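hi! just following up on the protien thing from before. the input was this:
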Amino acid sequence: MKLTILGGGGFRVPLVYGALLGDNADGRVTRVVLHDVDAGRLRAIARVLAERAAGVPDAPEVTATTDLDEALRGADFVFSAIRVGGLEGRADDERIALAEGVLGQETVGAGGIAFGLRTVPVAVDIARRVARLAPDAWVINFTNPAGLVTEAMSRHLGDRVIGICDSPVGLGRRVARVLGARPAEAWVDYVGLNHLGWVRGLRIAGRDELPRLLADPVLLGSFEEGRLFGADWLRSLGAIPNEYLHYYYFNREAVHAYQEAGRTRGAFLRDQQAGFYAGVADPAVPALELWDRTRAEREATYMAENREAAGAGEREAEDLSGGYENVALALMRAIARDERATLILNVRNRGTLAALDGDAVIEVPCLVDAHGAHPVAVDPLPGHATGLVCAVKAVEREVLDAARSGSRTAAVKAFALHPLVDSVNVARRLVDGYTAVHPGLAYLR
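and the predicted 3d structure came back as:
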């Protein structure tokens, strides 16, 4: 089975390959094709993968190419993890937004809109090529903003594109662990959009244990989201929000923390990864060892500003091991082998949330089999959550319209309507600022 990884020179690709190395069952991936526009990054990651596969019998064969059509042709699965504009673009997104006093995070607020405007045209081109060159392939999208990009691709691939994210998986794992349950045995009632969802229940042997957690301040203070949001606010919500909702519920504090930081997250990753790729270019440097050290630092500093603003402390050791690669592998297994699984995924709504239309991509538990991912029926969200979901989905639709039409007016509207951008004038300045530095936004007129 052939797996094509788009963004194959990306830093997190070895996580995916490492998951594949542990899969010895029939119908496994036997060939991995890495595609990237940067040949140097491809060579670096290929070195890491070669070292990781050393001594592993029947490790999947790895090839690399900068030819997109060659990479896609004949693929059974396509894993998309591209970053249009690179980490330099992310750093610019953050810097320009913070200068206007609004959030620049890569998936939330102004930064997420800018990233989406750059990424959607490229993702749509990829979707069209997949439909032409590999019409039977399944596309697993991890490209951020994951929900928005998955919806853009679904307009050309239908249900054969499925978005994944490790954030709900990590949240469900932490809640289950605090309640003394094995994550695999717990049913997580999670509903929302990508990076905008809530755990509303956690059933173990048919019993919802979330009320027990919400009633216990000691338990609430023992895991990351409890410390991040505070026990009182979680009890008020009656749910455990995705960590990214900290940017909404504590927006002023988050913006202030990012403004006070020595450099933004994007700038940190840009500099860190530049050092990694330069180091791996030296054949004498052990590539896998350098990658491991760099990854550990990356994971430990994730959302550091938010944790500092909330006084939440350091991340737990159990949360430093990634997770999206396991979601991707479980999804591929379920489809390729018809091994039924339940996973939290980004899929078309199909009436699951009555407040949104059927084509809107949402993030919910899904039953997965050989025919794809099928969203599970869920209870309606409370009013405050429904309002936020609908507002952000409306912004995503404006981004899609701007990317399709090239309309600068639609782009301004997308920024202006976002709950974290509080001024039409700020929205106009953001569009001016982003189009001035990003060649990928030259299509806006």
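The chain has 20 helices and 13 strands.
The two ends are 43 Å apart (CA to CA).
cheers
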